[in-house]
Design goal:
about 120 residues, mainly beta, six-stranded antiparallel β-sheet, four-stranded antiparallel β-sheet, globular
């Protein structure tokens, strides 16, 4: 236990215009993402509840039959197993908090993040 500094967390290039840093807790996962303008993340769902906080930029997300546009300073909570899809309207920096932990990422199941 102790302070964690983002500058010390390796940056993973997931796909064109998609970068991620991850902090693993025992029961949760915190990810810092950078997405380029125009990236599209196809529909997907997962066991973890997700809280997405937009630090910079703007995005559109479709979830549970509704569409939301999020801007810097806004948060969206996505319940467990809700299918969602994302379009980045501007370059974005996000913090995504997940509980429980994103074990699918640990198992290498993250191809959907490559965008298109």
């Amino acid at each position: 236990m102790g302070p964690i500094r983002w500058k010390e967390i390796p940056i993973e290039k997931i796909g064109e215009g998609v970068e991620r840093q991850v902090i693993w807790g025992d029961q949760c996962t915190l990810a810092r993402f950078q997405f380029a303008k125009g990236v599209h993340i196809p529909a997907h769902k997962h066991e973890a509840e997700q809280q997405t906080y937009v630090l910079e930029g703007a995005m559109r997300i479709s979830a549970a039959g509704r569409e939301f546009e999020l801007h810097a300073g806004e948060v969206l909570v996505i319940p467990t197993w809700i299918e969602h899809e994302v379009w980045f309207l501007e370059a974005c920096v996000l913090l995504d908090f997940f509980a429980p932990q994103r074990n699918d990422w640990k198992e290498g199941r993250q191809a959907y993040l490559k965008g298109d």
